[in-house]
Prior knowledge:
This protein is of the alpha/beta class. The protein folds into two domains: 1-87 and 174-262, Rossmann fold; 97-173, no CATH class. 40% of the residues lie in helices and 24% in strands. The protein is built from nine helices and ten strands. A hairpin with a 2-residue loop joins strand 9 (224-229) and strand 10. The termini are far apart.
Amino acid sequence: MAILEVKHICKRFDDTEVLKDISFSLEKGQVVSIIGSSGSGKTTLLRCLNFLEQPDGGTITVGGEVLFDGADPSAQKEKEIRRKRLHFGLVFQSFNLFPQYTALRNVMLAKELLAKQRPDYKKNKKQILSEIEEEARNLLTQMGLEDRMDNYPYQLSGGQCQRVAIARALALSPDILCFDEPTSALDPELTGEVLKVIKELAAKKTTMIIVTHEMAFARDVANQVIFMDDGYIVEQGDPVQVINNPREERTRQFLARFDQEN
């Protein structure tokens, strides 16, 4: 059974239809890479999956639970949306770290806020916060940042900030980890650092959706590749087939144009 099933998702901003009948599924432990030109709807799709935007129609199901059903708008209460959002961890293109907090605090913060809702929080506050801090330290160590935990974002390189962002996304143990162009703001050396971390996560069977312009990475790491254009899924399937031998003319044109620009 697929851990994620997206069926007929659509999204409109004013008169512009940004997502048009998007459907795909993802098995637990697999990686899907989403490729396509700017404006094709890739980021909007991730934002809809994370409930940062509400789709206008379709369904989103995770682990058999229907998280969104366009036919049932009554389910879109803010408290419910916050709960559903926990199924996904999102790593933003521009890190989106809190500048006033250290790397460690950035990773701890979301779990601390959730812990405050526990009925035993006041009684066991010290122990709970200690456990959260230990988990955050372990994640930052996993990211190779054991000596930068007390640094603020301005004291870190772009690659280090992105690794903090990955640790933060992992802190709540999401079912699916989503990346929105995680290397587009980085230079080639720092890009390599971040891609190495993502490859290690893939090797550990972390379920991921990765929007990327790194074609070789998309081909080598993903179990399936989705090519989007003008709000549609034009082609999806085996990474080698889609990137090396695409069936659709629009996919071929995009890849040829991408090769020329890079």
